[in-house]
Amino acid sequence: MPIRKEHKEFHTIDMTGEGWHSPPGYPPDIEQKILAGRLDEAGKTGNRTRLLRFAPGAYTTVPFAHEYWEEVFLVSGDLIVGGSSVKEPSLSFGPNTYACRPPGVYHGPFRSHTGCLLLELHYYEA
């Protein structure tokens, strides 16, 4: 299945307010902005490229598992992964770090002390 996305040349992205919203299941201080594509989770098709930003102090409370591939690049800020129990230590990451997660892999919970910006690619394998 070919990946179909709109042709877009370099353009300025509004990083202030327009087009940002909290994804379902996330707290209000974590917001996304879809840059390209469309991911149909019910139909298990498609792809998307999005920015995900955490406000300073933002956090999730439970691990996530998706039915799609997820690639994540930490653009700026700090991201702390794990630590949801005494048995699970947390790991801290800074800018220019990358994660690739296959479908069904649990990851998180997440938090950020200073806030962070992530570039994420989500896609279903053909």
TrEMBL record:
Compositional bias segments (type: Basic and acidic residues): 1-12
Region described as Disordered: spans on this chain: 1-27
SUPFAM superfamilies: RmlC-like cupins
Domain of life: Bacteria
Span of the signal peptide: none
InterPro entries in UniProt: RmlC-like_jellyroll, RmlC_Cupin_sf
Protein name, per record: Cupin
Native species: Mesorhizobium calcicola
